[in-house]
């Protein structure tokens, strides 16, 4: 994930510029040397014509920097981003497929293994093991293959459960996506923010927050990780499609 060398904030993949300070993002913070900005070398925003000159007039270095940061945050229409969660939402369709694959593999190994144990006990396979050792080996391996078979049936049961849940979830997802496409568009959303000369990367954050809040207000009690993933999926349908 890219990081801002100044703010030490983590960003999503694809973002190249920090939304707070405008610095180019880096892949590894450990390679960034700490630097101290000298007040004499700092270019005061008050020297630049426009609204920033008005809000920073008469301020010292630290107060000016704080005021400008606050103004920029207000313009972008978002709070400071919290660290990105490492939790990725896995929908029920994906869970069903994972359990289906696991069930087939576990059942295959378990059943084939049990058949092999029976053939081993019947001396179908040539071997030099006999007596007590033969039954101990058969018992240990048999218990292992029984466990594989049991886990396979559990995964198969979970597959059926997730498959039913996936049907409801997919219907809800399609309903939400249809509502977003029918009721939200890039022009209406962008009109709510004063971007100035902001790049597309900086526009992403207020757009994403507005889209997420709109979905949450229209469809109550959605799982937070599900809402995050769904917003990411809908974002290009609203903005990239309209922006073509």
Task: Describe how the helices and strands are arranged.
Blueprint: H1 51-56, H2 61-76, H3 92-121, H4 131-183, H5 186-190, H6 200-218, H7 224-243
Helix pairs in contact: 3-4, 4-7, 6-7
How does this structure look, described?
The chain has 244 residues and is an all-alpha fold. 61% of the residues lie in helices and 0% in strands. The chain has 7 helices and no strands. α3 runs antiparallel to α4. The radius of gyration is 29 Å and the shape is elongated. The relative contact order is 0.10. Residues 34-56 and 72-86 have low confidence and may be disordered.
Features:
single chain; 244 residues; mainly alpha; 7 helices
Number of strands: 0
Largest sheet: none
**Helical residues, percent:** 55-70%
- Percent of residues in beta strands: under 5%
SSE-based structural type? mainly alpha
Structure at a glance:
With 244 residues, the chain is an all-alpha fold. It is built from seven helices and no strands. The model is unreliable at 34-56 and 72-86 (pLDDT under 50).
């Amino acid at each position: 994930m890219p990081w801002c060398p100044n703010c030490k904030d983590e960003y999503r993949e694809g973002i190249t510029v920090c939304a707070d300070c405008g610095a180019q993002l880096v892949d590894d913070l450990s390679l960034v040397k700490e630097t101290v900005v000298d007040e004499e070398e700092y270019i005061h925003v008050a020297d630049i014509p426009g609204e920033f000159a008005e809000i920073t007039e008469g301020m010292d270095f630290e107060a000016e920097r704080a005021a400008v940061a606050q103004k920029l945050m207000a313009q972008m229409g978002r709070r400071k981003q919290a660290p990105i969660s490492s939790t990725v939402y896995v929908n029920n369709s994906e869970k069903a497929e994972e359990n289906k694959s696991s069930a087939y593999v576990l059942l295959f190994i378990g059943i084939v293994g049990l058949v092999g144990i029976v053939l081993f006990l019947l001396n179908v396979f040539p071997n030099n093991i006999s007596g007590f050792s033969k039954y101990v080996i058969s018992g240990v391996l048999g218990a292992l293959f029984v466990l594989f078979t049991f886990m396979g049936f559990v995964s198969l049961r979970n597959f059926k459960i997730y498959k039913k849940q996936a049907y409801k979830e997919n219907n809800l997802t399609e309903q939400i996506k249809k509502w977003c496409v029918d009721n939200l568009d890039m022009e209406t959303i962008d009109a709510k923010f004063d971007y100035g000369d902001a790049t597309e990367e900086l526009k992403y954050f207020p757009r994403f927050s507005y889209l997420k809040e709109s979905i949450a207000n229209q469809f109550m009690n959605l799982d937070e990780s599900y809402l995050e993933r769904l917003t990411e999926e809908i974002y290009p349908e609203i903005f990239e499609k309209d922006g073509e």
